[in-house]
């Protein structure tokens, strides 16, 4: 299912809840969606932890990551933050970024992430040095 199809499904569910039971039904549906999102967020953290743990020993240092899954799985992604620009360049040259992206997706699938949503799951890479240059080191601002 594409992200557009997921968005349409979400919109239809909200419209049906409004018609069926007004604000109470919409509130219940939103509670269920937030609970689902929390489950997928936890799944993503676990999958990312496992991918990093299994990474080749010579993988340049990954300092941090920004992870998230949207309500209804409309979108989802991971951004791994390498310590340095040189480390990211080395990882890209050695195809370790490809390895990490594939390992993250494989770990998600192994934990029950829907196969039809995995193609829309983005894995990106940046560096702490880039965050310092572009956002003064403010991760929140950088990832908005």
Q: Would you write up a description of this structure?
A:
By secondary structure, the chain is an alpha+beta fold. It has one domain: ANL, C-terminal domain (GMP Synthetase, Chain A, domain 3), CATH 3.30.300.30. The protein has six helices and three strands, in the order H-E-E-H-H-H-E-H-H. A three-stranded mixed β-sheet has the order 1-2-3. It is elongated. The mean pLDDT is 88.
What are its keywords?
GMP Synthetase, Chain A, domain 3, 63% helix, alpha+beta, 3 strands
SSE arrangement:
Layout lengths: L2 H51 L8 E8 L6 E7 L2 H9 L2 H15 L4 H4 L2 E7 H8 L3 H4 L2
Parallel strand pairs: 2-3
Antiparallel strand pairs: 1-2
Helix pairs in contact: 1-3
Q: What string, H for helix and E for strand, traces the elements in order? A: HEEHHHEHH
Number of helices: 6
Distance between the termini: 26 Å
Q: What proportion of the residues is helical, as a percent range?
A: 55-70%
Strand content: 15-25%
Strand order of the largest sheet: 1-2-3
Total count of strands: 3
What is the average per-residue confidence, as pLDDT, rounded to a whole number? 88
Write down the CATH class.
Answer: Alpha Beta
What number of domains?
Answer: 1
- What structural class do the secondary elements suggest? alpha+beta
CATH architecture: 2-Layer Sandwich
| Main β sheet profile | 3 strands, mixed
Q: Low-confidence segments, ≥5 residues, pLDDT <50?
A: none
CATH superfamily: ANL, C-terminal domain
Radius of gyration: 18 Å
Estimate the global geometry from the Cα principal axes: elongated
Write the CATH fold name. GMP Synthetase, Chain A, domain 3
């Amino acid at each position: 299912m594409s992200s557009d199809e997921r968005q349409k499904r979400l919109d239809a569910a909200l419209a049906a809840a409004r018609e069926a039971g007004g604000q109470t039904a919409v509130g219940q549906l939103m509670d269920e969606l937030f609970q689902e999102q929390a489950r997928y967020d936890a799944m993503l953290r676990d999958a990312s932890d496992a991918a990093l743990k299994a990474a080749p020993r010579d993988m340049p240092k990954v300092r941090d990551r920004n992870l998230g899954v949207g309500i209804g799985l409309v979108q989802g992604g991971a951004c791994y933050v390498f310590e340095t620009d040189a480390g990211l360049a080395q990882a890209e040259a050695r195809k370790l970024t490809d390895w990490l992206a594939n390992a993250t997706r494989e770990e998600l699938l192994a934990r029950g992430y829907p196969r039809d949503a995995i193609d829309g799951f983005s894995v990106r890479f940046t560096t702490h040095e880039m965050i310092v240059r572009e956002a003064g080191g403010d991760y929140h601002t950088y990832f908005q």
